[in-house]
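User: Show me a protein chain along with its predicted structure.
Assistant: Here is one chain, sequence first, then structure tokens.
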Amino acid sequence: MKTKITLTLALLFCFLTNANNITVSNISLENLNEPDWVQIEFDLSWENSWRLSAGPSNWDAAWVFVKYRVNSGNWQHAQLAQTDFVAASGSTIDISSDGVGAYIYRDSDGSGDLNLQDMRLRWDYGSVNTNDVLDIQVFAIEMVYVPEGAFSVGGTSGDENSKFFNGTENISYEITSENAITVSPGSLYYNNEGNTPGDQLGPIPLDFPKGFNAFYLMKYEMSQAQFVGFFNTLTETQKTAIDVPAPIGNGNLITWSGGSSSATTTAPDRSANYINLATAMAYLDWSGLRFMTELEYEKACRGPLPPKPGEFAWGNANINATPYTIINADQPTELITNSQVGTGNALYFSTRPGGQGQTLRNGIFAASAINKNREETGGSYYGIMELSGNIWESIISIGNPAGRNYTGLHGNGSITANGSANVANWPSSGTGLGIGLRGAGYSNPSIDLRISSRRLANFSYTVAFSDVGLRGCRSF
């Protein structure tokens, strides 16, 4: 092959003792088929992978996508083909229908570390001159598959703000399809008890993602390393337009000196906070993902199980109220030394280490737990982490016409020259109409962490907050 290739590794990782530690390595280009395509070869590994055919009946996966640049020009998104890919033994590759990326996961039941060598994806490089100098980056984000199926939202005798219900507050509403849903006291409804629960209007249209259909959700909230990896592929104009989280505490340690320089962080595994709406939208568009809806949020938390009064993402109303003690702060080995046994662990107002408001590294409760069960690790029914506490989850609200207009289109891997997302029917980054928050963060009381709480479900934020981050979603 005549092409001179510079191989640049961009690892979106979280070093978690009992979580993922996802790594991409040994990138090369193989089997050049001029003038059409070439295979991108790489090794991929992460810890504590699983696939189950019973119970949750799901798996975790890596969402893998590729960026390239020609002769040190602007980074661009690589289009992947549906054919000529090679899966390592023990793995499956699903290329997305739009060619933006690929899901890679176990091909049979099992659990433990997963090491996949010589994986290959076909890149249709189009007009790229194969005598040019190419830089290739392979990105991997750990996701969790949420299978198709009916589930319930809200209800029960808990005191969550503005929870969903069917008829009366103590009866949950069951979602059994993706059909349109009437919003009324005799169907899916909610009270105006919170700050911004919504307009109580409907219907929720057919194309709005309701959570019945299968989807993938990021296992963790976006990390500071993931933000840096995204930011450093942007042009100088795009970088200037993006709101870089200012290093003013609360766990954020991202720095950028301006111009064409690269951003860095000394806490790569911490969740990224201070993410304003325009930046969140740009990241999702760039990575080929989308926002989850608030109905998908409840499905991701409790799965098909009936709602329980006051429950958190780990499935019951038990929660630790003792401040955590942290060792190895900001490091990949950051741990909690007094993780509570037999109760739910989450970061919120009562458990903040030393009373300080800051994010913690993704997956810290799984890494610190004595017993690796849902309750002590804070995991959801499907194994998704930190859906209660740490930082707020950005969602699409049913409580606003702009939110109900959302059709779940994915990003295409590219943003505009001025650094903006440009996907149809997404919320406006200028007004925030249609966006909302669920799950709460480190500065909130425990009631806000409850699955059914909708106090800020229609909070149309646009600016950056210290306890707001991002978690991406993608339809199956």
